[in-house]
Design goal:
homodimer, alpha/beta, Aspartate Aminotransferase, domain 1, 2 domains, transferase (chains A, B), pyridoxal phosphate (chains A, B), Aminotrans_V_PyrdxlP_BS (chains A, B), Phosphoserine aminotransferase (chains A, B), aminotransferase (chains A, B)
Chain lengths: 390, 390
């Protein structure tokens, strides 16, 4: 067999995984830690897997500086499952704390496709509740700007009455629209803040203490698809029989009480996350990774901004370091641009099907030289196509 | 490093995976199909992953002879998630078909821990519905026999009015209690039959046409933990806005309409299932596998029945071919028995923590010679301990 091509994987997720991580998984595939078994064959109740699970939690705790009053849960079903779980469990936590209000509010900052979907799921589920639960869009970029790509200033946000609000929800990085919050949204200290960090998880330090819940799927920065990590402040764990009736597997307290093993967890995916966390430590931790991510993103946005051919539809105040979206001056040129990348072994540069254009996802695992090669291609493409136009 | 020990893995799940499957996954770990990428790095929307997903479906369809009027779904969250999904979706299907009855019944055959948990989840969720939904235990082994380990004759089962019944549910193989149905339960043809086959999936041929829904987690006979397979008759797919309000990710029709990719599916786990299906084909398919499973189970039950030291608490009419549970004459001897197995590299022989005793799970992947070695140990243990007692 010929040597495999070196692929520059700009996929939005599942995404590139560091080669050293894959190599380690490969070498241990049939014999983990001299057990004679694959990680996939280990009982989730075995001591060997217990070490993997707890080790992964401990590494995450250290890397993110997660305080002791938070639980780390491993769940399944991706962010869309969490849309429902967050609604159910945090409304339950509010009701457990206060009893029934006449009306409870759940507040959403809508800055792109994913936070919008989360708000829609809450609206759908809220209709079924006996208590009145109102989904309030604190801000809605599409309504305010006609499209996603900007976030209105915080002083225009309309929060609900904090005494009656179960949570404020936002998506820290919108994978489809390339919009990332550069500060933690400021909310009333009585109200738990919930962040979907699926696509910028561990790409920068995060002050966990400011959050009630932080969650994300693994398949962008943390490993393979099939496991979600939920970090939740312990006082928000409500009993299953309080609040909205919810499937057992979506109940945070059941997960916490059973150390994420109420039933069989996705053992191999958790192991892979552990290996990625080891790699992150080797890279120098989150502060180091953040510096690299800043450098990679700056280069790419500069290349876009300094060209007449490319333009970024996202306001500079909220451009994602992870998902860099841009357009060319015509769709015909975009098609041509994308046709040219495949022979360079650059993959997954096409924008999300709902928005078109180009999207380069440059997660933690993406080396700076791959970004450089993309920029070199952009420059040569520009040269060829602006000369041709002259 | 020394050569790894050969381990005899009697785990109930996650369980042994055929070595050739693990070797193939290992060889392709960094470079699947000369893509230069790991399966874990492939976009779920890529053609390469599309081939894996559709190939896995096709193989399953052929192996199980699944008719065209069934959908195959890949979901997450294990059987416990399906407890809720089955309730939500099949009540919805009944309501979509008939409108609202005064009362709808959901019927459960309770033959062990798992079917009991499924019935409990339905009871909990039913309370939240505006329509009256009654969970009826058609039979309940614990109530009838004082403990699990038998199934009452079919002529004693008390079904609800078929015209008002959304489904009849049973667990085809009870992993904890070692109870397996040897025939398909006969139900009124108007009522969809639902089977949890998590622990005997693909261990024998199954007449799919007799079922409304067949589902199972992969981590026993099909690969790693983290993916569940749901086979559902298409006329049972109800619209999301009909019936019980349910999380989007638990909606069968949403999964079907999006080819199991409403969001990112557990791509690597699906790939592994595909490899296990290839292996099953190499073994000669389900009829062949069934013969081997019959032979392995018979040997082991014979060794138990022919000994004064061992006894099987499960009635011969419903003994599982997959999970062979047995007791010794005292708990002290059981402890001694389990202490002796580890030096022989036999693992996971301890019975489920809720029942104690010994459990040997002998899934498809377990070679007959491993069963032989277990029996040899049982015989030598018996010899040592009956001589000692004389």
């Amino acid at each position: 067999m010929s040597a495999p091509p070196y692929v520059l994987n700009f996929g939005a997720g599942p995404a590139k995984i560091p080669s050293s991580v894959l190599e380690r998984a490969q070498s241990e595939m049939l014999n983990f830690d001299n057990s004679g078994m694959s990680v996939m064959e280990l009982s989730h109740r075995s001591k060997t897997f217990g070490k993997i699970l707890n080790g992964t939690k401990d590494k995450l705790k250290t890397l993110m500086d997660i305080p002791d009053n938070y639980e780390i849960l491993f769940m399944q079903g991706g962010a869309t499952t969490q849309f429902a779980a967050v609604f159910y469990n945090l409304v339950a936590a509010k009701q457990a704390k206060d009893g029934n209000h006449d009306e409870i509010f759940v507040d959403y900052l809508v800055s792109g496709a994913w936070s919008n979907k989360a708000a829609q799921e809450a609206e759908r589920l809220a209709k079924n509740e006996r208590s009145k639960i109102t989904v309030n869009k604190v801000t809605d970029s599409k309504q305010q700007f006609g499209r996603y790509g900007n976030v209105a200033p915080a002083d225009t946000w309309r929060f609900s009455d904090p005494a009656k609000t179960a949570y404020v929800y936002y998506c820290d990085n919108e994978t489809v629209h390339g919009v990332e919050f550069q500060q933690v949204p400021q909310v009333d200290p009585r109200v738990p803040l919930v962040a979907d960090v699926s696509s910028n998880f561990l790409s920068r330090p995060l002050d966990v203490r400011k959050y009630g819940v932080i969650y994300g799927g693994a398949q962008k920065n943390l490993g393979p698809a099939g496991v979600s990590i939920v970090i939740i402040r312990k006082d928000l764990l409500a009993d299953l029989d309080v609040g909205p009736v919810r499937p057992l597997m979506l109940d945070f307290k059941t997960m916490a009480d059973n150390e994420s093993m109420y039933n069989t967890p996705p053992t191999f995916a958790i192991y892979m996350v552990g290996l990625v966390l080891d790699w992150l430590v080797e890279q120098g931790g989150l502060a180091q990774i953040e510096q690299r991510n800043i450098a990679k993103a700056k280069k790419l946005y500069d290349a876009i901004d300094n060209s007449p051919l490319y333009n970024c539809p996202v306001d500079p105040s909220c451009r994602s370091r992870m998902n860099v979206v841009f357009r060319l001056t015509s769709e015909a040129l975009e098609t041509k641009f994308l046709a040219g990348v495949s022979e360079l072994n650059m993959v997954q540069l096409k924008g999300h099907r709902s928005v078109g254009g180009i999207r380069a996802s440059i997660y933690n695992s993406m080396p700076e030289q791959d970004v450089d090669r993309l920029i070199a291609y952009m420059e040569s493409f520009e040269q060829a196509h602006t000369e041709a136009a002259e």
